[in-house]
Design a protein that fits this description.
globular, single chain, 2 domains
């Protein structure tokens, strides 16, 4: 019984530590795909979420990035910072409140040449109502919440 308690407490501490220091790129719990396998370059070139091809990938910042075309992969490789979503792909609105939350790949905004993702379209609409304030707040929280 004592071993079980020790293991349980160790696991709880390990899990709570991950809340305070997440990976720099949001990949979900059960895989390593950035933006859940969607093509980050397509947001800029097609203004929509496009599922990436599992055969056209690259690794960057510890995550696997998928692309719908080889051209998009090459564009990303030439300037990953340009195409990578802000806040590591976590929800921009939640980040402004100091929280790490996943995203809906269809809830996005391109603003000043940067990709911002949100948890849902309703959250995206709220975020769009005051992007200047939300970005300023999120910029302050992000470095404290992830292992950069």
């Amino acid at each position: 019984m004592k071993l079980f308690k020790t293991l349980f407490i160790s696991f709880a501490l390990l899990m709570s530590a991950s809340v305070f220091a997440a990976d720099p790129i949001e990949t979900g719990t059960f895989n390593n795909k950035a933006i859940y396998g969607y093509d980050t370059v397509a947001y800029f070139t097609q203004n929509k979420a496009v599922k990436g091809d599992k055969k056209i990938t690259t690794e960057w910042r510890g995550a696997e990035w998928h692309f719908s075309t080889e051209e998009h992969k090459q564009m990303f490789l030439s300037d990953p910072e340009k195409y990578a979503p802000q806040y590591g792909g976590y929800c921009a609105y939640a980040m402004s409140d100091g929280r790490l939350v996943g995203i809906d790949e269809d809830a996005f905004t391109i603003l000043d040449g940067k990709l911002y993702l949100n948890y849902s379209k309703s959250v995206m609409n709220e975020w769009r109502s005051n992007t200047v304030q939300f970005i300023e707040e999120a910029d302050g929280h992000y470095p404290k919440l992830v292992d950069l």
